[in-house]
């Protein structure tokens, strides 16, 4: 284990099992629909990659990059589009894929933005949720795990752009982000 890691919060085995379960559910729910998965860069890239290989119906994939945190640990509340979609989504069934929901500011902005482009439906699939930190209510169609208000990294999630490659979701040692 890396020296900055306090402990593993969600293991790679748990992540694998949950990803399979959600993928199977999506495959049933979206049968016959025009499914488009939209990964929110950068954090969602690992979850999206594992998730799509557990979905066995036709789908399209696109990405958006928005910034709400920058390099700080606190949300600024300002959402900026850094990379927009390549696909047109009119009449399609959109599933936004996120690694983690914290304040909900990023997601609530994205949902209304995508709805305004004429999507048939816009739903959210998040791996992790920190319900204690919510500032805006967002409806989650699929959720992997509720987690406590701890600073987590790994499986796509960063601290100052580091640790995204860890195979488990881990809690960072406090001294790492408070210094
Ligand atoms: C993190 C996380 C979510 C968002 C959640 O992304 O991946 O996208 O913050 O926060 P919120 O619910 O308070 O809006 P971040 O902005 O750190 O970018 P990254 O995915 O590139 O790390
Ligand atoms: Mn993100
Ligand atoms: Mg981040």
TrEMBL record:
Subcellular localization: Cytoplasm
Requisite cofactors: Mg(2+)
The keyword Cytoplasm belongs to this UniProt entry's keyword annotation: yes
Keyword list, A-Z: Cytoplasm, Glycosyltransferase, Magnesium, Metal-binding, Nucleotide-binding, Purine salvage, Transferase
Gene Ontology cellular component terms for the protein in this record: cytosol
GO terms (BP aspect): GMP salvage; guanine salvage; hypoxanthine metabolic process; IMP salvage; purine ribonucleoside salvage
Alphabetized GO MF terms: guanine phosphoribosyltransferase activity; hypoxanthine phosphoribosyltransferase activity; magnesium ion binding; nucleotide binding
EC number: 2.4.2.8
UniProt keyword GTP-binding present: no
Catalytic activity, reaction form: IMP + diphosphate = hypoxanthine + 5-phospho-alpha-D-ribose 1-diphosphate; GMP + diphosphate = guanine + 5-phospho-alpha-D-ribose 1-diphosphate
Domain Phosphoribosyltransferase: 14-159
InterPro entries reported in the protein's UniProt record: HGPRT, Hxn_phspho_trans, PRTase-like, PRTase_dom
Pathway where this protein functions: Purine metabolism; IMP biosynthesis via salvage pathway; IMP from hypoxanthine: step 1/1; Purine metabolism; GMP biosynthesis via salvage pathway; GMP from guanine: step 1/1
Protein family (similarity comment): Belongs to the purine/pyrimidine phosphoribosyltransferase family.
PANTHER family to which the protein is assigned, alphabetical: HYPOXANTHINE PHOSPHORIBOSYLTRANSFERASE (PTHR43340:SF1), HYPOXANTHINE-GUANINE PHOSPHORIBOSYLTRANSFERASE (PTHR43340)
Function recorded in the entry: Purine salvage pathway enzyme that catalyzes the transfer of the ribosyl-5-phosphate group from 5-phospho-alpha-D-ribose 1-diphosphate (PRPP) to the N9 position of the 6-oxopurines hypoxanthine and guanine to form the corresponding ribonucleotides IMP (inosine 5'-monophosphate) and GMP (guanosine 5'-monophosphate), with the release of PPi.
NCBIfam families: HGPRTase
Record's protein name: Hypoxanthine phosphoribosyltransferase
């Amino acid at each position: 284990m890396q020296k900055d890691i306090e402990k593993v919060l969600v293991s790679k085995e748990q992540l694998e099992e949950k990803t399979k379960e959600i993928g199977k559910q999506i495959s049933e729910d979206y049968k016959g629909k025009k499914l488009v998965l939209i990964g929110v860069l950068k954090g969602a890239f690992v979850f999206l990659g594992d998730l799509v290989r557990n979905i066995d119906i036709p789908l399209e994939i696109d990405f958006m990059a928005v910034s709400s945190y920058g390099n700080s640990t606190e949300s600024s509340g300002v959402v900026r589009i850094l990379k927009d979609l390549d696909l047109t989504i009119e009449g399609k069934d959109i599933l936004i894929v996120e690694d983690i929901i914290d304040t909900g500011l990023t997601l609530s902005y994205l949902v209304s933005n995508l709805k305004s482009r004429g999507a048939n439906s816009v739903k959210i699939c998040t791996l992790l949720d920190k319900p204690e930190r919510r500032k805006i209510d967002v409806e989650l169609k699929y959720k992997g795990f509720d987690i406590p208000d701890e600073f987590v990294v790994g499986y796509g999630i960063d601290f100052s752009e580091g640790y995204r490659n860890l195979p488990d979701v881990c809690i960072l040692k406090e001294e790492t982000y408070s210094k």
